[in-house]
Design goal:
- This is TetR family transcriptional regulator.
- By secondary structure, this protein is an all-alpha fold.
- It has eleven helices and no strands.
- Helix 2 packs across helix 7 and helix 5 runs antiparallel to helix 6.
Length: 234
Amino acid sequence: MPSDMSLEQTPAERRRSKVRGAIIDAAERVFASEGENGLSIRRLAEEIDYSPSAIYKYFGSKEELIDELKEAFFKRLLSRVDMISGTDRPFHLRARACVSTYIETAVERPHHYAAAFSNAYGSNTGNVWPDMDWETFMQTNKGRAFGLLVDMVREGQSLGVFDPSLDPYLSAKSVWAASHGLAQLMTHLPQFPDLRPTNTCLSASEFVAFHADLVFRGLQHPAVLPHTDPTAQD
């Protein structure tokens, strides 16, 4: 079923969107098989039987195309998280689902996920992260996704579920780092969730749910331990 946006587009706009989508899909395929170094406008032209000049009408450079790949991944993630956020499910289920959705979206299309974080250090910056101010970052899909994570922490704090002393931004960064690490492990080592010294099998989805639950509990109020006197005798 066509979306409201597709119905509002003119035939020329729909064709342009279709071609852009085909180019991005082809870029993901080339990235998957040949890596970032193998991705070029000429190589894409061969992949989808277009002329390089035709592709340049949509993307001015390889760098612009890679930026689009990055934005496209987080756009897909945002649409999924938006659906979760818009439900009437209890907060603890929505919060866990947000964490799980990030990992599942990454594992579903691992090469696109790899492209979303490719070339993290600009070619002319050595080992220095490229400058990007907060406002610029938050205007990207990646920034918007991070903003939703911050909002989740704040909502949990307002509901009395999460520890109010936690900094929402540091907490969101920590949750992102933990989830990114698991996503990387599962895309590079698919058997990782089942690595354990027993014969009990654990599916990938079960391990992701375990991870999401552990992250959620880590943000909750710390357990209050009974006071103990270190000088007391057993």
